[in-house]
Amino acid sequence: METDKQNWQGENRRKTRVENDKLFQTIVGVNVVGWVVFVAALIVFHYARPEFVTGVQDFWGVTGREQWSSSLSTYLVALLFACVALSLTVLLMKRKRTRRKNDNFGINGLVLLLVASLSLAALFFEFN
């Protein structure tokens, strides 16, 4: 029975190709938006974190900010929550789309979910 499924040469009953499927195009669009939001979160992280003061700067008396920027930290957390929400949306949409063995699951939505969730957890422990 299992060998019959592997050797099946029947007709593909999908009416549209995967590239022309509106659900697939929506999944790709939401995924791209999620990664763009994550890159924006990385940019905000760069400006929100405390400044690194080297020994030379300390010797010359140059001061730097030693705490997180509170306003930018709020934006950072909001962007990371948006990344988590968008990646969960992508994963739920892919669950509806990929039902066959030869359908690709796509790992990038899962990677985005894990990285954004771990970043939120790290920020939570940093602020508490």
Overall 3D geometry?
rod-shaped
| N-to-C CA distance | 58 Å
How many separate helices?
5
Radius of gyration: 22 Å
Residue share in helices? 55-70%
Q: Give, in order, the helices and strands.
A: HHHHH
Q: Give the overall average pLDDT.
A: 82
User: Which structural class should the secondary elements be placed in?
Assistant: mainly alpha
Percent range for β-strand residues: under 5%
Low-confidence stretches: none
- Sketch the major β-sheet: none
* Strand count: 0
| Overall tally of domains | 1
Outline the structure in words:
This is DUF1648 domain-containing protein. The chain has one domain. The protein has five helices and no strands. The protein has helices spanning 2-6, 22-48, 55-60, 70-97, 108-127.
Q: Keyphrases for this structure?
A:
128 residues; 0% strand; mainly alpha
